Amino acid sequence: MTPDEVAGRLRSGMTIGIGGWGSRRKPMALVRALLRSDVTDLTVISYGGPDVGLLAAAGKIRKLVAAFATLDSIPLEPHFRAARQRGDFELTELDESMFMWGLTAATHRLPFLPVRAGLGSDVMRVNPELRTVTSPYPDGEELVAVPALRMDVALVHLNRADARGNGQYLGPDPYFDDLFCDAATEAYVSCERIVPSTEFAGAEAPQTLLVGRQSVTGVVETPNGAHFTSCVPDYGRDEPFQAAYAKAAADPDAWREFTARFLSGDEDTYQAAVAAFAEEGA
Length: 282
Description:
The protein has 10 helices and 12 strands. The protein is α/β, with parallel strands linked by helices. Strands 1, 2, 3, 4, 8, 9, 10, 11 and 12 form a 9-stranded mixed β-sheet that branches. Strands 5-7-6 form a 3-stranded antiparallel β-sheet. Strand 6 (131-134) and strand 7 form a beta hairpin. Helix 8 crosses helix 9. The two termini are 34 Å apart. The mean pLDDT is 96.
């Protein structure tokens, strides 16, 4: 598949989960394809980074479910901050652990999972729709009933995958991409390289084979497809480009120029513009 073919399967009003973490291993080529589409009015579920920022800047988000929205080296995602200050979309903010258990509940097709995370914190105040349950056992403990984070579609990016949808990460952290795929009705995996399945039996540990084909609807080979987020060990975060992104986000005229240069064409055009940007800074 191509990124635009994946975007062509999405519809306005869907709930879309986006894997990765902050500005790390985000499926940015798929997000850019989504930006080029007419799809809007989305509920987005994400450990947010520039995926959330770009979709917010384009006005495609109706509701965001997130534990944070950050660029890591820049603490707060600038487009997310501006959109929230304008009140552009509804936000459900969860503790990182609550978010993970919400994904886990969805994976197991449970309505919720009881957890201690969030009790005694403001997350219960800012999310009045959250409910608690009481243990039916002698301890009688009160717990937060974290609702399942079910989604129509999940988008994730991995270092490599085979053509059938098995996906492997080679960096230090799996994040929760497997849970995103299992929690979704359809899941699309972009990857740096599509490889023969036999390559998975190499030196990497078995647990690096993170995503199973039974959860995957389609696979897209997108070299540099996580740019400008990191995809270790293939490449780190493009800090000069991220800094330019954040600087442009602070000024409407600069953002129009940034959009015209980097986001007005297809993925090949984007990658060519990024290469030219890197040469200018060399």
